[in-house]
Design a protein that fits this description.
The chain has about 450 residues and is mainly alpha-helical. The protein has helices at about 1-30, 40-65, 80-90, 135-165, 175-210, 210-225, 240-250, 320-335, 395-410, 435-445; strands spanning about 95, 100, 110, 115, 120-125, 130, 380-385, 390-395. A two-stranded antiparallel sheet has the order 1-2. Helix 1 (about 1-30) packs parallel to helix 4 (about 135-165) and helix 2 (about 40-65) runs antiparallel to helix 4. It is an enzyme of class 2 (transferase).
Length: about 450
Amino acid sequence: MGRILGRLFVCGTLLLITFIGYSSQIFVIWPWYGHELSVELLTLLIPFNALLGMVLWNYYLVVTTDPGRVPREWQPNFQSEEGYEVKKLTRGPRYCRTCENYKPPRAHHCRQCKRCVLRMDHHCPWVNNCVGHFNYGYFIRFLFYVDMACTYHLIMVTRRVMSATSSKFWDEPSYTELIFIILNYTFCGPVLLAVGGFSIYHFNALLKNTTTIEGWEKDKVATLVRRGKIQDIKFPYHIGTRKNIEAVLGANAWLWCWPTKTSGSGLKYPVADPTDPRAESWPPKDPHAYPSADPNHVFTLPESPWTYENGSLNPNLQPSNLTRRASSSRRRRGHTKDGQVISSVPPYHPDYRPPGDDEDFSDSPPASETSTLAEESQPRRLVRRGSEGYEVHAIDREGMLQEYVTSQMREPGRYNVYMPDSPSASEDEEDEDVPLATRVESWRNEAA
Ligand SMILES: [Zn+2]
Ligand SMILES: [Zn+2]
């Protein structure tokens, strides 16, 4: 059904092109020039037919050219540095599960074509084919010639209309001519508007060497960067405007408008910065999107039967999102709920997290199930609560300071500790504490 529908679309498109192209010449221009072949008529129609020919030729090429398929058993070069980087950064090279084959850079699987397509741009129902590496050039030329031919056509028909209204001679079109003028406007106007808008998008994409799919990927990456999930990354295939065009339309600028075969295998593309290992891993993935896909993630059973799944705390004892948000806003202001200023040097306040430390309570499993936890020198203390698991027990700043000092003192020889002498050992300084007036009084008594 899909194949028949696709062919119907192609027939419809061809019908539309030929109708606009030839009905205007046969039923509008030919009668206007008095059904006679003249030099003026030829100078008007030859350029138009040349444009029309290019539209049809490029259309034929887009429909019949294979956009490029991935060779069976193709795989990335794992030995090369790039291959290694691909694996390291994207957690495995790109792979198509449907085709059961690796995907070269910029290739995507097309559901309609039921296969992977090299440098896939989009699946176009109007050409019943995917637009990819080998026919993207024809597609761009087709759009260009449709724009040119439609503009020429509209100018030509409009001139005919103008001649009828402003001519010195009465040059009223016949009934048939009038119908075809109206029909040509009704078909050509919307086609130029639609294809024109589409062309602007694709010419812009050509200048940036971006496919339609990569345009969406760029938007997605921009969102991830904005949310702080990944580092900013430049689109790797933008290698300069001139080179971007050459990559699609060929190195010879005189032949850009002439249908030429696209060079390259479609399996590898030059990147702007070959030294950047991230270039080979486009598009960057959201690291938080598929945590289970992380091969380094190992599921471990909790040591204690009292803890909840994967060593986490009793969910009822964990702070709710509301409290977390409130505490984080307090943290931002640098104060705790008691009004204390959070210290960013040790000893740390229980609310203080060193930058980059995204660990949650649930990520720190309890050391053991016995009460030795209380002896831990960590500021956050876990206290057993029977069958309920563990709860976080807050300790005050004073206790924390005590604990910190003790932990620092445990290391012998690290600090020279000042130990004050006992009062009895320093007899000479004994009267230091006695007020001067009292001492003078005693001297007077001695003298007397
Ligand atoms: Zn595939
Ligand atoms: Zn397709």
